From TrEMBL:
The keyword Transport does not apply. GO terms for cellular component: cytosol. ATP binds at G691, P692, N693, M694, A695, G696, K697, S698. Residues 1-46 are annotated as: Disordered. This is DNA mismatch repair protein MutS. Residues 19-34 have a biased composition (Low complexity). Pfam families: MutS_I (PF01624), MutS_II (PF05188), MutS_III (PF05192), MutS_IV (PF05190), MutS_V (PF00488). GO terms for biological process: mismatch repair. GO terms for molecular function: ATP binding; ATP-dependent DNA damage sensor activity; damaged DNA binding; mismatched DNA binding. Residues 765-781 form the DNA mismatch repair proteins mutS family domain. Belongs to the DNA mismatch repair MutS family. Keywords: ATP-binding, DNA damage, DNA repair, DNA-binding, Nucleotide-binding. The keyword Protein biosynthesis does not apply.
Length: 941
């Protein structure tokens, strides 16, 4: 809190009066002096205000109650204790209840959003009880009358609308989760809404895909029945994405009620025009609508038609792969360092949200992907049009959120201005597309956007432009946001308010001319108010007809006589109430304009969505032009052919650090070519990637996955050329992590994630695997890695990049027709290694681990000793291989798929034993035979 402030002494009775801000303390200090609060229950000795508080609190037991008192929101009892600990503000006392002190703290109105945000982030729900009347009105009812108050909204993580509480570049989803009949094998229906924009999504997923879907949606809050939330695994999925969970009665999930509610919100008699919905989806949508209505006390935003999601609509990426690829958040949880940060060139908050949504939900439909690519390509080529559109969009405010706030009754004059400016931007955008773009023939996607922008209401924009000043104030209660000349009554009220004496001077001149009394004056005092005064000598004409009928005598003084007129009394009353009247007229105008916007909410929502689409598309075109990206060819084949691919995030980091150019690499899986079109690796679905650490294996793996994501988003990609058969699923298992909270070691997490991949992938999936099996004993890990590659090749037939330090796996390239070996190129020079970051055909024969350890700064003694141990181990392994015929000959690693093996001939030991004739051996000959057999056993002649 800015500056040290004090609070006046708080004593009974509890009065309705503004409070002074509490001085802030560290949370621990505030909590340390707190005593356990009394249980808040009604009591006969409660003051009227406390009785009112307890009544409202009883109706909202699961929320912190913000009780409006003048310029503060006050909290009492256990709410005060919890809030003071969370916010770090002073916990004080106010009166007594049931014989005990009442804990209390408060936050000032002007800083309410800041404190509310902190409480919501800490997981609290807040019920906001506002004063519903002026305290002056309450005092008219008697000394003990209490100001009328009631809850106007319940604030939860998923029901925020204020800009100060929201991230302008991210959606804020509230998600309802439902499974029909509670059957474990039944699909899960998820319905999500961002009430700050009215955006709605609905779809179904399997239980195995739930964590990935929740990671994609990234909801702030999830509602579900108590029975569903009792499932520890399901609840864990919700918790791991950082969403708060809110149990609601199972009766909320009623498909018939959901269908009726959705029809009501969309203002239609049938839902067929918006697609088909399953009964579980309708049940989830119904619960979602009911929950919003309850928390917002019957108000709902103007919702948009639900978008379809789920397994058949988008490229599925599980939660672990999303985290590994850092699509919208880095490993540290920040946007910086993510793919989204690298590609975001949007100029509006709505456009940024749309781009993030596209990146989180890449498409599977090849037709829709290419429609987006056509639009991006058009704007790449039309540089002037792209520049003009982006310049125009920069002035576009977030009209979707402005419309929602107005619909909830929480709007401000700036929200009216936002709609006005948004409509103006839409008109300019439509004109630019129709003008500069029409001659070249707009692609389908841009044509659709242009049509939506052109549908903006010109009349509404004109009304808002005529009514609202260029730079309106934040709060409508302050007035001053309506233009002069918009309404004559308002102009007059303002003139009376701002220039009352000037107006009276004009009236005085009028009366002088009317009466002929040049000494006549219009004066004012606190007793009589405004009056007309003339000297005793000049008073006679005003006391006699006809002027006496108009000028009524009020007071005679020693030297003057005072009069009044009906006109003067009327004007005096109007001046006295001018401020109130002006403010009232502005509130009426605000309500009229807000109602007009609400009537157009559906069309305005489409305009807002079109502006966001245009910004996201132009952003991707700007990215492609500036970064030198190429248009990918996306089709229904199983090709994956990247030429000159680059990692978008690493490449930009190198540019920023001026650390040199990124080394590009090819990748061809399931298509001829790649890696210099080497025949040895053409048409292979699986690449085994070997090479030392720090050589760039992980970067190479990830960049190909990111290129695939960008292509299916409908973006140009960081490559010279790319042909990609649309993927159904993308898996990325790169890097090691544990999950100790659930009792899982690093190796267990690795195995769980690998199992999920092998159980869910198909021949249309792309799989990125790095170092499978390294978390256990060497032979165990090697066996698992070997079997995994065979499964990918023989059963799944998927496209895969498999990085490993198990050089023994490279033997699979000779045994499996769809497997190729590639390695990261390095050069050795004077006992040092130089990383070239280039992929080439072949397999690494060593991992250079000791050289990397030396680069990392290990002591020279450790490095030297490691070299000695390595030489000894290599020598020992060489002898073992000589005796055993090599690893490839062991039954464990023999590939069973080739035809039946030739019967093996007898071994030398078996031949020697067959040649022995025990009955003919002397003791000396028997001893020699034993020595000979032992020599054969040890590899001798």
């Amino acid at each position: 809190m800015a500056g040290k402030q004090t609070r006046r002494k708080l004593v009974e009775p509890l009065e309705d009066a503004p409070e002074v801000a509490a001085a802030e303390k560290p949370c621990a200090e505030a909590a340390s002096s707190a005593e356990p609060p009394p249980a808040p229950s009604p009591a006969a000795d409660a003051t009227p205000s406390m009785a009112q508080f307890l009544e409202i609190k009883a109706a909202n037991p699961d929320c912190l109650l913000w009780y409006r008192m003048g310029d503060f929101y006050e909290l009492f009892f256990e709410d005060a204790v919890a809030a003071s600990a969370t916010l770090g503000i002073v916990l004080t006392k106010r009166g007594k209840h049931l014989g005990q002190d009442i804990p209390m703290c408060g936050v000032p109105i002007h800083r309410a959003d800041e404190y509310l945000h902190r409480l919501i982030k800490a997981g609290h729900r807040v019920a906001v009880a506002e004063q519903l009347e002026d305290p002056a009105e309450a005092r008219k009812r008697g000394a003990k009358a209490v100001v009328k108050r009631d809850v106007v909204r319940v604030v939860t993580p998923g029901t925020l609308t204020e800009d100060t509480l929201l991230d302008a570049k991210a959606r804020n989803y509230l998600t309802a989760l439902f499974r029909a009949g509670g059957q474990a094998e039944a699909p899960l229906a998820l319905a999500s809404i961002d009430i700050s924009t009215g955006e709605v999504e609905v779809g179904e997923v399997t239980g195995a895909d739930l964590s990935g879907e929740l990671a994609r949606l990234a909801p702030s809050e999830v509602i579900a029945s108590d029975m569903m939330l009792a499932d520890a695994e399901l609840r864990g999925c919700v918790t791991r994405v950082g969403a708060s969970t809110t149990p609601v009665p199972g009766a909320y999930f009623d498909s018939l009620a959901g269908e009726a509610a959705l029809k009501k919100q969309l203002k239609v008699a049938e839902l067929g025009g918006f697609g088909s919905f399953t009964r579980p989806e309708l049940a989830a949508l119904g619960a979602l609508i009911k929950y919003v209505e309850l928390t917002q006390l019957g108000r709902m935003p103007a919702i948009r038609p639900p978008k379809r999601s789920g397994s058949n609509a988008i490229l599925l990426i599980d939660a672990a792969s999303r985290a590994s690829l850092e699509l919208v958040r880095s490993v540290a949880g920040d946007k910086q360092g993510s793919l989204l940060a690298a590609i975001d060139r949007t100029v509006t908050g709505a456009g940024a949200r749309e781009l993030a949504a596209r990146l989180s939900s890449p498409l599977r439909d090849v037709g829709r992907i290419n429609e987006r690519l056509d639009a991006v390509g058009f704007l790449v080529d039309q540089e002037n049009l792209r520049s003009d559109l982006r310049a125009s969009l920069k002035s576009a405010p977030d009209i979707a959120r402005a419309i929602s706030r107005l619909g909830f009754g929480r709007g401000s004059p700036r929200d009216l201005a936002a709609v006005r400016e948004g409509l103006s931007t839409a008109e300019r955008g439509a004109a630019l597309l129709a003008g500069e773009g029409a001659g070249m023939g707009l692609p389908l996607e841009l044509g659709r956007i242009a049509g939506e922008l052109a549908s903006a209401s010109g009349k509404l924009r004109a009304d808002l432009a005529a009514a609202i000043v260029d730079d309106p104030p934040h709060l409508k209660r302050d007035g001053g946001f309506v233009r002069e000349g918009y309404r004559s009554e308002l102009d007059e009220a303002r003139r009376l308010k701002e220039d009352g004496r000037g107006f009276m001077a004009g009236l005085e001149a009028k009366y002088v001319e009317r009466t002929g009394v040049k000494s006549l004056k219009v004066r004012h005092n606190n007793i009589l108010g405004f009056y007309i005064e003339v000297t005793q000598v000049n008073a006679k004409p005003l006391l006699e007809p006809p002027l006496a009928d108009e000028f009524r005598h009020r007071q005679t003084m020693a030297n003057a006589v005072r009069f009044s007129t009906a006109e003067l009394i009327d004007i005096e009353g109007r001046i006295a109430s001018a401020t109130e009247r002006a403010l009232s007229l502005e509130q009426e105008i605000f309500a009229e304009l807000a109602s007009a916007i609400e009537r157009e909410a559906g069309a305005l929502g489409r305009v807002a969505a079109a502006l966001a689409d245009l910004d996201a598309t132009a952003s991707l075109a700007e990215l492609a032009r500036v970064e030198g990206y190429a248009r990918p060819m996306v089709d229904d084949s199983q090709a994956f052919d990247i030429r000159g691919g680059r990692h978008p995030v690493v490449e930009q980091a190198l540019k920023a650090a001026r650390a040199g150019a990124f080394i590009e690499n090819d990748c061809a899986l399931g298509a001829a070519g790649g890696a210099g079109s080497d025949d040895e690796i053409a048409d292979n679905r699986i690449w085994l990637v070997t090479g030392p650490n720090m050589a760039g294996k992980s970067t190479f793996l990830r960049q190909n996955a990111l290129i695939a994501v960008l292509a299916q988003v409908g973006s140009y990609v960081p490559a010279r050329a790319a042909t990609i058969g649309a993927l159904d699923r993308l898996f990325s298992r790169v890097g090691a992590s544990d999950d100790l909270a659930r009792g899982r070691s690093t190796f267990m997490v690795e195995m769980v994630e690998t199992a999920a991949i092998l159980n869910q992938a198909s021949d249309r999936s792309l799989i990125i695997l790095d170092e499978i099996g390294r978390g256990t004993a060497t032979f165990d890990g090697l066996s698992i890695a070997w079997a995994t590659v065979e499964f990918l090749h023989d059963v799944l037939k998927a496209r895969a990049l498999f990085a490993t330090h198990y050089h023994e796996l490279t033997a699979l390239a000779r045994r499996l027709g769809g497997v190729a070996n590639v390695t990261m190129d390095v050069r050795e020079w004077q006992d040092e290694i130089v990383f070239l970051h280039k992929v080439k055909t072949g397999a690494a024969d060593r991992s250079y681990g000791i050289q990397v350890a030396k680069l990392a700064g290990l002591p020279a003694e450790v490095v030297g000793r490691a070299r000695e141990v390595l030489a000894l181990l290599e020598k020992t392994e060489s002898r073992k291989n000589a005796r055993n015929g090599g690893l490839d000959e062991l039954p464990l690693f023999a590939v069973s798929r080739p035809g039946p093996a030739e019967p093996a001939g007898p071994s030398p030991i078996e031949n020697a034993v067959d040649e022995l004739k025990p009955d003919e051996l002397t003791p000396r000959a028997a001893l020699d035979a034993i020595y000979r057999l032992k020599a054969l056993r040890q590899g001798g002649a």
